[in-house]
Design brief:
Blueprint (H helix, E strand, L loop, with lengths): L12 H24 L6 H14 L3 E2 L11 E5 L2 E3 L13 E10 L2 E10 L5 H19 L7 H15 L3 E2 L5 E3 L6 E5 L16 E4 L2 E3 L5 E3 L6 E3 L5 E3 L2 E6 L2 E4 L7 H6 L8
Helix pairs in contact: 1-2, 3-4
């Protein structure tokens, strides 16, 4: 069975360039949001900032209207892991917020997320955010042409498990991305290496570990979107969209293509 038979979309070099343009819109929007997060700002105000930035760049928000979602970003606070709906909630000192952003340029999608502290947070929350972000990069760094999707999954889990007692969400995973925001294959954040579809040139994946200070069990609130931990433990979520070229990994939603972090991890940079 070939990749196309599985519904996996393989892009041309020119199409990947289109995804890079979308990825840059996402990356720049997230940096704007990073500088905008402060005590007292509402998640709805952050959403308005993001929508304006995306549209001003000539792009379209991926999330707005997606299966009825009402925001241009997902804004998830504290024990809200993912898919939080922006609205009137004002951020307080000591909160953490996950901001997930998607944009479409000429039909191609970019998707990324960051988690930010609002002022000072406890040391264990700071460590949670560090471990989650680092695990994302370790997953990307494990990807090689000819390898398998779960090489990424295994690297994420191995790093998180080695860093302490954290919960790794199992019901929510990374995904393929391209002409649609969510495509095959799924990219779990745990599992044995060497399984799943092969990693080939032209495949683009969104890698997004979702890690908690407690349980990996979650539930969805009555809004039918917001995912929270069942034990109330706080969570972090980081995401980047990347691809592989013959030269190495290229992180399409990182402003520098991931070059600095990949070099730190000893991984060749494949961008152009």
């Amino acid at each position: 069975m070939g990749f196309r038979d599985r519904g996996i979309e393989i892009k041309t070099s020119q199409q990947i360039d289109g995804m890079r343009r979308a990825g840059l819109v996402v990356g720049r929007t997230l940096e704007l949001l990073r500088s905008s997060v402060r005590v007292g700002i509402t998640t709805g105000e952050l959403d308005a900032i993001a929508e304006d930035a995306i549209r001003s760049a000539g792009a379209t928000p991926s999330f707005l209207g997606y299966h009825g979602f009402s925001g241009s970003i997902c804004a998830s606070v504290n024990d809200e892991v993912v898919h939080g709906i922006p609205g009137g909630r004002a951020l307080s000192e000591g909160d953490v917020i996950s901001l997930d952003c998607g944009a479409i340029v000429d039909g191609w999608h970019g998707d990324a997320a960051i988690t930010l502290a609002v002022g000072e947070v406890p040391a264990d929350v700071t460590e949670l955010m560090r471990v989650t972000e680092e695990s994302m990069w370790r997953g990307i760094a494990a990807a090689r042409l000819g390898g398998h999707v779960t090489d990424i999954s295994h690297a994420i889990e191995q790093y998180v498990r080695g860093a302490g007692r954290f919960g790794i969400l199992e019901d929510y995973v990374g995904h393929g991305i391209g002409s649609q925001m969510h495509q095959p294959p799924n990219v779990p954040n745990y599992g044995r290496a060497g399984r799943g579809p092969r990693l080939v040139e032209g495949l683009a994946l969104a890698v997004e570990p979702m890690i908690t200070l407690g349980t990996h069990d979650t539930e969805v609130l009555e809004d039918d979107w917001t995912v929270v931990t069942t034990d109330g433990s706080w969570a972090a979520h980081f995401e980047n969209t990347f691809t592989l070229t013959p030269r190495g990994a290229w992180v399409l939603t990182a402003l520098d293509g991931g070059e600095e972090k990949l070099a730190e991890l000893g991984v060749p940079f494949g961008g152009r």
